[in-house]
Amino acid sequence: MSTRRVSLANEQKRPTTNAGLWLDKFIRNQAEEDKDSRRDLVRDVSDIPVPEEYARWFERWRRALHDYGAQCRVAEVLGRMAVGLGEESVLETSVALHHTYGVPSIPGSALKGLAASFARQHLGEQWQPGTDAYRIIFGDTDNAGYVIFFDALPLPGSKLLYPDVITVHHEDYYQKGDAPPADWDNPNPVPFLSASGKYLVALAGPDPWVKAAFEILRHALLNLGVGAKTSSGYGRLRLEPDPPIANADREKADQLIGQIQALKTSEVAGRIQTFYEQWRKLEVSSVHKRRIAEAIVAKVKEAGREKQSRGKDWYRELLESLR
Question: Are 150 and 203 within 8 A, CB to CB?
Fold first, then answer.
């Protein structure tokens, strides 16, 4: 009886081929001793281009993050990165690929774990599990942290996957432990896929804590690295600082929020709607628009004017923006 694998033996790559499916389903020969087919598979997958639709999807993803209130920065791989190397695969190695588009990604859980590990190892007693700072960003066994770490996805427009190899020189020593390593042991090259490129890193949560999490992550990505083989230099990324436009947005918002908070209680009734008008016209990111709206609503409540304001269109619009 013909098996599915035999039926697919002559299948060839197409412009719409998904790299993840090709890697998992179309290996020609799974025999352990057949190294050539595994090497060829890795090379084939590395040559599959990023789908044209990915660029459009990525922009929708970026807008969704923006609308959610997440802050985004770009991280560039310095060399190569191997994420998901030990996951289950038809090969001895694997790679973390987006299920739909087949592009490499960095799971948000990996970024969060890396930042938490760096905090515990390098930031002193105030960042140990159980401290307030650690719980607020990373959470604990009872509560989630206040900062959300999203999956990091690659920016469109560049080659992302490359063929790579791990060469084990003392296989019996590592696997069985009953034979000492020797100079005459045969090398055993194991092919795998590594990634490069620039990735969009997104965090969401209270602004001061997101800023702290980005700073921790910046040092962790550069000094520890993410994924596998970090001791060999893999997984190092340079996280870019806030873009100038983000700093400008923050300064505009901070200035307006400072003026709102400086209002005396007796001035709120006559002047607070003026700040709403400024809020409507101000062109800043959704994160800072929300901060300003929160400041206006907080000042209205502080002045004891929430009941009078609830019937006004401008106040209802502010409340709607905060949902």
Answer: yes
pTM: 0.69
DSSP 3-state assignment of 59? helix
Cα–Cα distance between 226 and 115 in angstroms, integer? 10
Which CATH number is 50-241's, of 3.30.70.1900, 3.30.40.10, 3.30.43.10, 3.30.565.10?
3.30.70.1900
> Residue 228 pLDDT > 90, yes or no?
no
Q: Cα dist. 12→9, 26, 193 in Å?
A: 9, 9, 20
Q: How far apart are CA 206 and CA 217, in angstroms?
A: 16
Cα 300 from Cα 186, distance rounded (Å): 76
What tokens were used for 8?
């697919």
DSSP 68-117: HT-EEEEEEESS-B--STTS--SSS----B-TTT--B-B-HHHHHHHHHH
Cα gap 299→121, rounded to integer Å: 41
Q: What is the DSSP track for 222-287?
A: HHT-SSS-GGGTTT-EEEPPPPHHHHHHHHHHHHHHHHHHT--GGGHHHHHHHHHHHHHH----HH
- Residue 48 pLDDT class (50, 70, 90 cuts): confident
**Of 14, 2, 93, residue with least CA distance to 52:** 14
Rounded distance between C-alpha atoms, residue 136 and residue 18, angstroms: 39
Contact 82, 95 (CB under 8 A): yes
- Determine the Cα–Cα distance for residues 224 and 215; give it in Å rounded to an integer: 14
Q: Please, is 220 exposed, middle or buried when counting C-beta atoms within 10 Å of its C-beta (0-12, 13-18, 19+)?
A: buried
- Domain edges within the chain: 50-241, 245-321
The pLDDT, as a whole number, for residue 131 is 93
Segment 63-80 shows an average pLDDT of 89
Q: Using DSSP, state whether 313 is helix, strand or coil.
A: helix
